[in-house]
């Protein structure tokens, strides 16, 4: 699926997670506020909280628990380079095959949370915005990442250049 189509679908009721089979993060269009996090640094849920906090600039009082994470992820702020509100918030997760490798039972929670955040930015936030996550992994690992996420209850879109 082309990136533009994925982001358009994610902004509605489409899949919120896409797998990018490649070595580098994909290019994203103007108007998208995006961060890159490294799944190799997120082997546990606590490490995931830390990495997302760093990347998205969570406030110092972030409680490093699921409720606090939900609050912060639904309150992402900041303009894009042109000074306007972003049309989308995208988390690019590189080395996706390593995500929560020491805490695999947490993937189901994390996967369902991404849909929760997407629904918030689509239905509640003003102005509305697309919310999505892109899992970057080596092409030979993409099928395994896709299977892992499907088993966690979150079918993914396979992205293409």
Q: What would CATH call the architecture? A: 2-Layer Sandwich
CATH topology: Barnase, Chain D
**Helical content class:** 25-40%
Instruction: Determine and state the CATH class.
Output: Alpha Beta
Q: Looking at the structure, what is the overall shape?
A: globular
Mean pLDDT across the residues is 94
Backbone structural class: alpha/beta
**Order of helix and strand elements from N to C terminus:** HEEHHEHEHE
> First CA to last CA: what distance?
8 Å
Any idea how many domains? 1
Strand content: 15-25%
Stretches where pLDDT is under 50 for at least 5 consecutive residues are none
Secondary structure tally: strands: 5
Arrangement of strands in the largest sheet: 2-3-4-1-5
Largest sheet: 5 strands, parallel
Rg, Å, rounded: 14 Å
User: Helix count?
Assistant: 5
The CATH superfamily name is Barstar-like
Protein name: Barstar (barnase inhibitor) domain-containing protein
Pfam family, one: Barstar
Organism: Gordonia rhizosphera NBRC 16068
InterPro entries: Barstar (IPR000468), Barstar-like_sf (IPR035905)
Question: How would you sum up this structure, described in words?
Answer:
With 161 residues, this protein is of the alpha/beta class. It has a single domain, classed as Barstar-like (Barnase, Chain D, 2-Layer Sandwich). The protein has five helices and five strands; from the N terminus they run αββααβαβαβ. The chain has helices at 3-10, 45-56, 66-73, 107-123, 142-151; strands spanning 17-21, 32-38, 88-94, 130-137, 157-158. Strands 2-3-4-1-5 form a five-stranded parallel beta sheet. The radius of gyration is 14 Å and the shape is globular. The mean pLDDT is 94.
């Amino acid at each position: 699926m082309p990136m533009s189509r994925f982001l358009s679908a994610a902004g509605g009721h489409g899949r919120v997670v896409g797998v990018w089979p490649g070595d580098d993060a994909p290019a994203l269009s103007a108007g998208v506020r995006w961060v890159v996090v490294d799944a190799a640094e997120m082997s546990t849920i606590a490490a995931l909280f830390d990495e997302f906090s760093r990347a998205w600039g969570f406030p110092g009082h972030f409680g490093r628990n699921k409720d606090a994470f939900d609050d912060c992820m639904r309150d992402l702020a900041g303009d894009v380079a042109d000074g306007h509100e972003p049309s989308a918030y995208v988390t690019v997760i590189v080395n996706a095959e390593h995500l929560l490798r020491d805490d695999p039972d947490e993937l189901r929670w994390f996967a369902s949370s991404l849909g929760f955040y997407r629904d918030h930015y689509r239905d509640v936030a003003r102005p509305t915005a697309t919310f999505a996550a892109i899992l970057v992994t080596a092409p030979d690992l993409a099928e395994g990442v896709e299977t892992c996420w499907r088993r966690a209850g979150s079918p993914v879109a396979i992205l293409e250049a």
